[in-house]
């Protein structure tokens, strides 16, 4: 049977991809952020996962406001990134794990989750930035990816509890898969941030640290929040926390924190990093 090795939370801010592209990771602005990642990279190098399931949100590249699925899962053999206007050089395609992805989709439908199944799918910085952070130099050719895209751009959005339950169902589906594959699960997205309106630049460090504690020790406390709560406490883009809850739901209830870091601000965003085994 397949095994889930652990989970990783990480920011997916598009400016990170630009910093990598320009080679400025060790400049004073970026160094405190990038210096947090080597322990996670070492863990990945040691554990050698075969598959990464990545909870992320699309920012209008594949799903614009005219068609916005609540939950979408990729079952493709490859995923390509398109330039979103940052002028970044093209990166290699990301390999998909089609067979396991179809198994997960079948299990989710059996569990009464309504999902959009994507046999072709472009991916944006929500997925590619975490890949670049974990495998510098785009050295991710050895790992296969299953994208799980959750709507946090257009209301109505799925509740934190619904996303946690989705993660639980995905975790059960992985553990029922009849091939010996090792899986790591990512929950991506910035923490508190607001990019528009009167509160542009809003960051709530106290709430971010509360969420980093609860995601480990009491995720059910976060499932009692509403999307409105997240907007009020963490800014208009704060609902990205629901990707973290998807990741946490897929893991076993008991786990060990192998690494943790919080840095603010990066591109007007709170950036939290957790490695959970």
From TrEMBL:
GO MF term (any one): ferrous iron binding
TM annotation in the entry: none
Name of this chain's protein: Protocatechuate 4,5-dioxygenase beta subunit
InterPro entries named among the record's database cross-references: Xdiol_dOase_suB
Organism from which the protein derives: Vibrio xiamenensis
Domain of life of the organism encoding this protein: Bacteria
Signal peptide start and end residues: none
NCBIfam families assigned to the protein according to its UniProt record, in alphabetical order: PRK13364.1 (NF009901), PRK13365.1 (NF009902), PRK13366.1 (NF009903)
Extradiol ring-cleavage dioxygenase class III enzyme subunit B domain segment(s): 8-269
Keyword annotations of the record: Dioxygenase, Oxidoreductase
Record lineage: Bacteria, Pseudomonadati, Pseudomonadota, Gammaproteobacteria, Vibrionales
């Amino acid at each position: 049977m397949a095994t889930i090795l652990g989970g990783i939370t990480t920011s997916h801010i598009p400016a990170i991809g630009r910093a990598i592209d320009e080679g400025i990771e060790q400049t004073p602005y970026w160094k405190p952020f990038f210096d947090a990642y080597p322990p996670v990279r070492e863990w990945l190098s040691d554990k050698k996962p075969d598959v990464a399931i990545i909870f992320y949100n699309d920012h209008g590249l594949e799903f614009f406001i005219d068609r916005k699925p609540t939950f979408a899962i990729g079952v493709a053999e490859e995923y390509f990134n398109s330039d979103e206007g940052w002028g970044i050089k093209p990166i290699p395609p990301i390999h998909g794990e089609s067979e396991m992805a179809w198994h997960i989709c079948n299990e989710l439908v059996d569990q009464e989750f309504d999902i959009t199944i994507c046999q072709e799918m472009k991916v944006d910085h929500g997925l590619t930035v975490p890949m670049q952070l974990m495998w510098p130099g785009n050295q991710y050719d050895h790992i296969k990816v299953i994208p799980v895209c959750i709507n946090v751009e257009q209301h109505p959005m799925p509740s934190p509890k619904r996303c946690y339950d989705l993660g639980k169902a995905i975790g059960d589906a992985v553990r029922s898969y009849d091939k010996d594959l090792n899986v790591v699960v990512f929950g991506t997205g910035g923490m508190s941030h607001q990019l528009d309106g009167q509160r542009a630049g809003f960051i709530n460090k106290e709430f971010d640290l509360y969420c980093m504690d609860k995601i480990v020790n009491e995720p059910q406390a976060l499932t009692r929040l509403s999307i409105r709560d997240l907007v009020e406490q963490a800014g208009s883009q704060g609902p990205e926390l629901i990707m973290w809850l998807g990741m946490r739901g897929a893991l076993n209830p008991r786990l060990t924190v192998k690494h943790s870091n919080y840095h603010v601000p990066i591109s007007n965003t709170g950036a939290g990093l957790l490695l959970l085994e």
